[in-house]
Amino acid sequence: MDSSFTLFAAFALQLFIIVDPIAGVPVFLAITPDNTRAQRRAMAVRGCLAAFAILVFFLLGGRWLMDYFAIETAAVRICGGLLLFGISLEMLYGRPTGTGTSPREERLAEAKADISITPLAFPLLAGPGAIATGLIFVEQVHSASDYLALLAASALVFVVTALLLLRADDLLRFIGTLGAAIVTRLMGLVLAFLAVQYVIEGIRGAFAS
C-alpha cells in the first residue's frame, strides 16, 4: 500500500506539472473569445473528461503497446526523458511548448464552436508529454493497487484542472499573466530535473541489460 501511495503522489505531481493548467488558463480564454462563461465551463468539463479518457487508454494499454512493438523500458525512459526535457526548456523560456497548441491551432480553435476535444483535451491537456509520463509510470506498476493509484492520480489532476478552468476568468485576474508565467517557469525547472533523471535511469538500465 505504501508503494502505491508513493506512486500516486509522484505521478500526480509530475502529471500536474506536465498538464500545467495554470499556464493553460490564458490559452483557454484566448481560444474561446466569443463564448459565454456557461459555454466555457461546459467545454472545460468535456475537455478534462476527454483528456482523462485519453490518458486512461495509455495507462491501461501502454504496457501491451510496448510489448507489441518490442519497446524496452530503457527506451521509454530515455525517449520520455528527452521529450520532457524539451518541454521543460520551453516552459523555462516562457514559450508555448511544441507539444501543446500551435499559433495556427489557436487561430483555428477561435473559429470553432466547440474546442473541448481538440485542441483542449488533445494536445493542450493530454498531449505527448502527459502520455510519455504515463508510459514511464506504467513500467513501475506491479499490482492492481498500483494501477488504481495511477488512475486515481490522473482523476485528481484533471479534476483540479477542470476546477481551475471553470474559474479561468477569476484566476487570471488574481494571478495575472506574469504570475502564470512565473509558476510555469518554476514548474519547468522541476520538470527539467526529473527529465534528466529519467534519461540517466534509462541509460543505466540499457547498459545493465
Automatic annotation (TrEMBL):
Pfam families: MarC
GO cellular component: a single term: plasma membrane
Transmembrane segments: 6-31, 43-62, 74-94, 115-138, 144-166, 178-200
Membrane topology designation: Multi-pass membrane protein
Domain of life: Bacteria
Cell compartments where the protein resides: Cell membrane
InterPro entries: Multi_antbiot-R_MarC
Keywords, sorted A to Z: Cell membrane, Membrane, Transmembrane, Transmembrane helix
Family, similarity comment: Belongs to the UPF0056 (MarC) family.
Protein known as: UPF0056 membrane protein
Organism this protein belongs to: Trichloromonas acetexigens
Taxon lineage: Bacteria, Pseudomonadati, Thermodesulfobacteriota, Desulfuromonadia, Desulfuromonadales
